[in-house]
Write a structure and sequence with these properties.
alpha/beta; Aspartate Aminotransferase, domain 1; Aspartate Aminotransferase, domain 2; 2 domains; 7-stranded mixed sheet; 3-stranded antiparallel sheet; 12 strands; binds pyridoxal-5'-phosphate
Length: 392
């Protein structure tokens, strides 16, 4: 008998791209993968050296993070974001995703009278998934035309039930910089914890780098990752920082559950946080790729807005779909033919490029694709040449 109460996982979004990937890979020279935001550049040499010489392999690592790691994180928060915070109010996480996916369950245990997680209607899919894994309601907050959350649209009944509200700045996928002050004021007014995912903050292109902690730590946690900043996605290192009571609770519960960043990785992440030269190099790489990619689509006659932060281009595709509909009509569609998916097929077929359909990040993403700058300039040039020969 079918049990309707059983939790059924949705398919993992990127697994839905298998067919489009095959299409792109059929090009001579293969697929140019701009779908998942996984860095293609190496971590700095000082990081690899520190990891190899850590001498920490034999013993269990500290769950909250060793002293040097937390001190380096505190030093970085001050140097890059102007936030003065004691290392005691910082905890290590095994990359930001793990923290996003697990924190709702710990918050729910802490405050069992509440059962709701709020998150931006266009956002990193794990915000909603973390809520579902905790048995919570995942409630998207509508966005205004600048992709900021419309806080006044949150129902009072949802606000009263909310354990936390996620904000992500610069945003994946839109590249928008959030109005953190308003989110924090809203959170404090309703007694809702603000979880601020700032893992792209080093890649801020417009204005100064923003952190929720610039508005005080009361009721606020800011989340950081070494994955993008230092190309350490394969090592799994990040940290959360802010409200002393919350950090203390989370670090205790995470210790009981056995969440630990491996010792050699803690040492490597410490070296990475203390160095900013490699980040300057990485910023330049992303800027050059963003500019080249923008030009590529402008040359095809499309409007492209560069992101205010992050390394994704959030590209509106409705007009392009009607322009190239004849090219698209030849496909046998296995996937639903939304305009976003259609554009993914177009780019794969004509350019051998793999990008993500906007609906991976919420229903509002229909009509957009997200293009990650995670390939070197030469590979982006390859796409440009293929597309020009097929579409112009
Ligand atoms: C907004 C956002 N938060 C968190 C993560 C997870 O990063 P990490 O590699 O630190 O788990 C990502 C990864 O793409 C992301 O885009």
């Amino acid at each position: 008998m079918k049990d309707d109460t059983r939790f059924v996982l949705p398919r993992y979004p990127y697994d839905l791209l298998d067919e489009v990937r095959q299409l792109a890979d059929a090009h001579e020279g293969g697929v140019v993968d701009l779908s998942v935001g996984t860095p293609c550049d190496p971590p700095p040499a000082c990081v690899l050296e520190a990891m190899c010489k850590s001498g920490t392999e034999h013993s269990y690592p500290s769950s909250v993070g060793n002293k040097a790691y937390r001190e380096a994180a505190a030093e970085w928060l001050y140097r890059r974001l102007g936030v003065a915070l004691s290392p005691e109010h910082i905890g290590a996480c095994i990359g930001a995703k793990e923290f996003v996916a697990t924190t709702p369950q710990w918050l729910r245990l802490h405050d069992p009278g509440k059962d709701t997680i709020l998150y931006p209607a266009l956002s990193y899919p794990t915000y909603a998934m973390g809520a579902l894994l905790a048995g919570c309601r995942a409630v998207p907050v509508p966005l205004d035309s600048s992709f900021n959350m419309e806080l006044e649209a949150i129902e009072a009944s949802d606000a009263r039930r909310a354990l936390a509200i996620w904000v992500n700045t610069p945003s994946n996928p839109t590249g928008a910089i959030a109005d953190l002050k308003s989110v924090i004021e809203w959170g404090r007014q309703w007694g809702v914890t603000v979880l601020s995912d700032e893992c792209y903050v080093e890649f801020t292109w417009e204005g100064s780098r923003q952190s929720a902690l610039q508005f005080g730590s009361d009721g606020v946690i800011s989340l950081h990752s070494l994955s993008k900043r230092s190309n350490m996605a394969g090592m799994r290192a990040g940290f959360y920082a802010g409200d002393p009571d919350l950090v203390s609770y989370l670090s205790e519960v995470r210790k009981h559950a056995g969440f630990m960043v491996p010792g050699p990785v803690q040492v490597a992440a410490t070296a990475a946080l203390l160095d900013n030269e490699h980040v300057d190099v990485q910023r330049q790489r992303y800027l050059e790729r963003l500019q080249l990619c923008r030009q590529l689509f402008v040359d095809l006659g499309m409007d492209v807005v560069l992101p205010a932060g992050g390394f994704y281009i959030w590209l509106g595709v409705e007009e392009a779909i009607s322009r190239w509909h004849e090219f698209l009509d030849k496909f046998d569609w296995d996937q639903p033919k939304t305009s976003s998916f259609a554009f993914c097929y177009l780019l794969a077929s004509a350019g051998g490029a793999l990008v993500s359909p906007g609906e991976f990040y919420g229903a509002l993403g229909e009509g957009y694709v997200r293009i990650a700058m995670v390939q070197p300039l030469e590979r982006l040039q390859v796409i440009a040449e293929r597309l020009k020969s097929q579409l112009i």
